[in-house]
Amino acid sequence: MAKYLDPKADLTFKKVFGEQKDLLQSFLNAVLPLKEGTEIESLEYLTPEMVPENPAKKYSIVDVRCTDNHNRQFIVEMQMYWTEDFLQRALFNTSKAYVRPLEKGDGYDELRQVYCVSIINDIAFPNLKDEFYHRYVPANIDHPENTIKGFETIFLELPKFRPSSVSDKKMMVLWLRFLTEINEQTKEIPAEMMENKYLCKAVGIVEQSAYTDAQRMAYDKFWDEIVSERTLIKGYFRQGHAEGRAEGRAEGRAEGRAEGLAEGEKKGRYEVARNLLAMHLPIDSIIKATGLSKEDIDQLI
Questions:
Q1: Rounded to a whole number, what is the distance in angstroms from the first to the last CA of the chain?
Q2: Could you report the per-residue pLDDT of 83-124, keeping only the tens digit for each?
Q3: pTM of the predicted structure, to 2 decimals
Q4: Mean per-residue pLDDT for 254-270?
Q5: Distance, CA of 263 to chain centre
Q6: CB 12 within 8 A of CB 219
Q7: Is the N or C terminus of the chain more exposed, i.e. has fewer CB atoms within 10 Å?
Q8: For residue 139, what pLDDT is reported?
Q9: What are phi and psi of 39, to 5 degrees?
Q10: What is the Cβ-side half-sphere exposure of residue 186, based on CA atoms within 13 angstroms?
Q11: Residue 16 class from Cβ within 10 Å (0-12 exposed, 13-18 middle, 19+ buried)?
């Protein structure tokens, strides 16, 4: 009986989507809102590095970048857990890709459509309980049907996905089932996956027998690091927020209570910053993680 690896891991995700253009093309055509006649017909991979990685989240994000026959750019990210700064990162990467031609001295006519697809193995929008697909575009607040073309950011929350919630997009369902159902506990691949040439190929790529012992060790290390990162980052924020709320409650009442909460919240962020400084993380990473200014953090050194 064949055994399989989870396609969400760094090693497997890149083998499926970062090395197989036909699979990435099928996935993007399935999940993006591309109109008939504008589907992706061919892809070319781009160099993935556009912004320095945050060492505190070294393992939690895997991305693949490419351009297509219509001169559009695509960024596909696999995010293993969610924090608020990941939203800002997605928006930054999308806008960065959009304006990059101008940094090289090209004109505005060189700007090209950019799509960022963030696949999230976590709950990112808890207030939208039954929605796993989230599409963001620049839009008129009073008339949201009027949008500005340029870039789109799409978030797919895997924990919320249910095949029954998507009735008219078979390929989207198959690809999301691949990402949510295939893992080390999988004993039998659903027939509908094996009947589809793209999914059948993807399943073959994540079969354990296709990997060396060294690759399997790297795969296991990836999951160990994810658990450590999730525990570390979220633990620090829970600690800082709890301390901030407690101190804020003690400092004020009525109108003064709001001010006290804000002050306590900031002190909580200072505590998080102290912990990250102790880990010898770069100042820029600590600024992004805590929201404090460089001057604030310099006071702690």
A1: 56
A2: 777 788 788 888 877 777 666 666 666 677 899 999 999 999
A3: 0.73
A4: 60
A5: 31
A6: yes
A7: N
A8: 86
A9: -65, 155
A10: 21
A11: buried
